[in-house]
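To whoever picks this up:

The nightly regression suite flagged 3-isopropylmalate dehydratase as changed. Nothing in the input moved, so I suspect the structure step. Input below, exactly as stored in the fixture:
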Amino acid sequence: MDCFKKITSIVTPLDKVNVDTDQIVPKQFLKLVQKSGFGEFLFFDWRYDEQKNKKSDFVLNDSKYENSQILVAGDNFGCGSSREHAVWALLDYGFAVIIAPSFADIFFSNCFKNGVLPIILDQSIVEKLLQETGKIEVDLEGQTIKTPTDEISFEIDSYQKKILLEGLDDIAITYQYEDKISAFEKQSKIPSVL
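Regenerated output under the current build:
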């Protein structure tokens, strides 16, 4: 997992509430065995019609949001099933930050495990960011969002901040305890797994 520091990008506004993981990446695309390749299926049913033509009225199909790394959405983002593929699809598409008034718990946790920064902000601030047309900067170390006209602070758990800043996934976190695990294995005469 890459270390997260600062992201400067335009905002992709997804002004929808209760966006569930089935909408983020539909079930028929969950056949891949690796974490990559899911970006092309992100919001598939909203992005494409039955003939797989792009729908001109969906925000991701608007060229001005191409290469955006910041998604701003409505309340309860990531609800529904607990599939980690939803975060993989967002990350593979290019989003590194998701800002919303609230997230589903499992989705929120999966973001941190995969290097995506989910930021919870008050509804009134999210509404302003949905209208933002210039670039904004998200600074994880400083816990700030800088718009052309404002600086917004955000809260984050210190442990979650640490794992993003250091680029630590669950395996990397486990390897931090390699010496202790090896010592325990020797003491217990358990075959080494590391």
